[in-house]
Every structure is written in structure tokens, then in C-alpha cells.
Amino acid sequence: MLKTIRDLSTYVRRHRRAYTIGVAMMVVNAFFTTLMPIIPGTAIDALKQGTMTLPRMWLFVAALLGTAAAGGLAMIIVRRSLLAASWEIQFDVRRDLFRHFARLDSDYYDNHRVGDLMARLTADLNAVRMLVGVGAFQAINTVLLLGFTITRMARLSPGLTLLTAVIMPLISVTFFLFMRVIHRRYQRVQEQFSEVSAMAQENFDGMRVVKGFGIEDRHVATFRSLNDEYIRRYLALTRIDGPLSPLMETLFGFTLAVLLLFGGRYVLGVGGNLTIGQFSSFVFLFSGVQWPLQALGWIANIAQRGSTSWRRLREILDSRPNVVDGPETDYALTEVRGDIEFRHVSIAFDGVPALEDVSFHLRAGESLGITGRTGAGKTLIASLIARVLDPDAGEILIDGVDIERYPVAVLRRFIGLVPQEPFLFSDTIAENIAYGVPETDLEALMPRVREAARLAQLDDDVSGFPRGYRTRLGERGVTLSGGQRQRTAIARAIVRDPPVLIFDDALSAVDTQTEARILEGLEHVQRGRSTLIVAHRISAFQHCDRVLVLERGRVTEEGTHEELLERDGWYADMHRRQQLEADLEAA
Ligand SMILES: Nc1ncnc2c1ncn2[C@@H]1O[C@H](COP(=O)(O)OP(=O)(O)O)[C@@H](O)[C@H]1O
Ligand SMILES: [Mg+2]
Q: Is 575 in contact with 538 (CB distance < 8 Å)?
């Protein structure tokens, strides 16, 4: 809890002004709210002693109204400043989370379910906002109200105050114990909610698979049992929530009875002395803290929920990407020319080797092709160059310098990677291409966007769309074909003109002629650019300076396109087969 407060105070500090005003106004409010019960008490004494006149009565009425108005006005300001700040804090936390998500590597997403992350973002953020908003507000407000009330009570009658002060903690402790159980049950509800939303999310993502295999019934049944458990846990929460407020009312009734017994005796002059008006003020004051005392329990609840949620969000914020700048990072390295060398690189997953002793040298400006069966390790090589992950053994040199010495940001900027399965955002085509560059002025970028699209052979397609580059993609827009998606991703990579360009199977969904046009077009504009082409189609390698054939993580063939054909191995075999297919298609 303390850690949560410390963590969140950095966010609160940014809204210092709102919180200062809020707290100051709460003091004003507590002062007037606790003054209110005193006024009728004083009036009662004046009536009893016969000093009350009609004009004085109006004075009392005016004082009461004025006090109520002042207290109410202060509370309006409190709500405005504090609750607005709490929404902004929620916004800040959410922004930090998203920034962090963007920095995490892909294996974070392999190990965490998206539905679970979504539940955290919505439910947990809400709980944290409750904590910094309503929770903080109620906590401060309650402490102030109790403080003012007890001071005023003590001025009226120290004896009765002592008595009340003994009973009040009893109320709060009972509340607290109840809240502990409530909190535990609440957690179980939250966990189950994560399960349910993860399942729902996966179901949406995999609906086509589910339908394709005709296993809808099984999925519905699983979902129902998850949902049933959720309802069961929720009911368990309500069962303990229910008896709480009747119990509290009984406790207050009991306290009131004790007050009447002792207060009445004081008024009669037994064991102390108190006027009727003072006694009335005292009872009014005590009734005034009924809700604040209950609120204490409610706050405990909000605080616990909020801090549990914050702990879970913290877990996300604390997870570090695998590849980060470290002590070996050399910030003098600000550029990449494009000379890439692998020296005896190996990497294994759970003891199973995925790349073994891979060595090659791609000089700046040259092009290297890599081919091989699915699972041979081609994507791994591409990922290692982009430093999405690090090898277990061997060295990767960029311009002769160990890749680990480059700031990660430099590698990301100078190495353009077109992934096997591109991700397009639900934005316009222009924006999707412009994601490749840090600049944000889309209008100024349009010529570059268009040029990149032209090179990626996407321009003709886009011109055919009614809104051109302003065409929206995704759920509320058009759906691109696989080839168009790949070409959009290619345009995104080449728009910033990187000195190293990696195509990871990025031409698999375009036809051979388009592939040839893309590669030729790039050849023209990019003298001096290093290109790595991962492909299954041998035709993609015709103009490559060298080609590697990978088999189960090892380089089995290596040479120019012609040399490999002469060698008459796997490469030549693939070439023959693909030629035959092409001939058959043409026929
Ligand atoms: N993050 C990872 N965790 C575990 N295994 C991986 C990971 N990345 C790749 N592999 C394994 O390494 C091998 C090579 O994968 P990959 O490079 O994607 O092959 P491809 O040649 O089809 O691109 C595969 O057997 C794959 O299962
Ligand atoms: Mg691959």
C-alpha cells in the first residue's frame, strides 16, 4: 500500500495545483459542515433560557443557511478540481502503459494473452483512478471531518467525547474486517473476469478456425463454465456485502443509546453538566459522522482494490524488453552504413538449436538471399540483424562493430525490416506507410509516401481506390489483399530510405512479375543499400550477389545464383520445380 502511494504520488505531483486547491477547500468544507450542528444547539439553549427574540431567530436561520451554502460551495470546488485530476491521472497512466507496450519485445506478447492485457487496461486503470480520485478525496475528507468533529465534541463535553471515541474505532474495525473478506472475494472475481475476457478475445481472433473445424459447441460450453464460475464468485461477493449496512445501523443505534444514557445524566446534573442545547449539538455532530465512519470502510475497500490493480499494472511496467541499451552501448555510434557480418552465430530455444554456426558477410551495398524450408531459421537471421533478440553464441558485426554496442534506437532507425506478416493499423493507407518515419506532418510527407508506394508497386492499386491514399483500412475501411498488405509494409520500410533493407518472406503473396518489378525498382534507387531477401521463390534471387541455403539452422549451400544452379543441390532442385510449375501455369 505504501509502495502504491509512493508510485502514484509521481502522477499526483503533476496535478499538484488541483490537489492543493482540493485539499484547501476540503478544510473549508469540514469547518462549515461541523459548524452546522452547533447552530441549532445554541438556538435551543437561547429558547430554553428565554433570551431568544424573533429577529434573533432570523439571525440563526441566516447563519445556518450561510454555513450550509459555504460548505456546499467548497465541496463543489473540491469535486471539480480533484475528480478532474483523477481522470487525467488515469490518462497519464494509460499513456505510459501504451508507450511501454510498444517497447516490449514480441515474446512478451507470446507469453501474455491479449484479452488479459485488455482486462488489466480497463478494469485496473479504473480501480487506480478510483484510488487517486474518489478514494483520496474520501480519505482526506473523512479524516478532516472526524478531526473537526472530535475537536468540537471535546469543547462541548470531554467526558462524552471520550465515550464516543471508544466506540468509533469499534465501528471502523468491524468495517475493516468485513472489507478484508470483501477484498479477497473481489480479487477472485477479477481473476475470473480476466479468464472470461481472454477467452472472449481469443474466440474473436480464432473464430474462423473455430468455425472451420466445427467446434463451436465445445467453445460455447467452455465459455459457459467460465462464465458460471464468474457469476458464482460474484454472488459470494454480494453475500458478504449485504449484511454489512444493517450491521452498521445496529452499531450506530447502540452508540446513540449509550450517548442518551450518559448525556441525559449530564443534562440532569449527574456526573457532569451539559445544557440541553449542547447535548443536542453533540448528538447532531455524532449523526454527522455516521457516513464518514462508514466511508472509512469504503475507502479501505477502494484503497485495497486500487493498490491490487496498481500492483498488476506495475508488473507490466516493470517487465523489461530483452534487448535494451546497457553499459556496453556506445552512443558515439549514430549511423549504420550496411556492412553485416555473422561469425559462428548460434541460438537455441529450450535446448533445441535453431541456428548453428551460421557465418556470412554482407558488404555494404550488396544483396544477400536466404532460402530454405519453413522453420529453417530464416526469420531468426532477420530478427538477429534487427536485434529483436540476441544470439547465444558467436558475433554479429555491423560495420565491423559488435551489434550489441549500437544503441537500439540507431539499429531500429537504420535497418528497415519488412516482416513476414505485416501489421497494418486501422488508419489511412498514407498513415500506414508514414508510420515508417518519425516525422508527423503527413502533408509534407506525401511526396515521399507516394514515391515509396510507387517503388513497392502499390501506387496503381491505391489510385484505384475511391479515396486514394486517404482510404481507410481495417474494421471501418477496406480490406487489402495479402499482396497489397505486403506491398504496404514494403512501402512503410522504404519510405525512410534505410541503408539496410530486410525482406522476410515479404514477397510471398505477390506474383512473380510484381516481385521482379519491386526488386528492379529498388535496384535503381538504392545503389549502396544492403539488401537481405528471404524468400521461397528462387526467382527472387536472380540479381542477388550471394545466396545462402539454410537447413535446420545450418548453412548447407552458398554462392551466387549461377554457382548454386551448377552445384545441382537443393537450390537447383527447387529452381527446376518452380520453373516447371511456372510453365504449367503459363500453359
Ligand atoms: N521466439 C522463439 N521461441 C522459440 N522458438 C523459436 C522462436 N523463434 C524461432 N523459433 C524456432 O526456431 C526455428 C526457426 O524459426 P524461423 O526462423 O521462424 O524459421 P523460418 O525459416 O521459417 O523463418 C523454428 O523451429 C522455430 O520454432
Ligand atoms: Mg520465417
A: yes
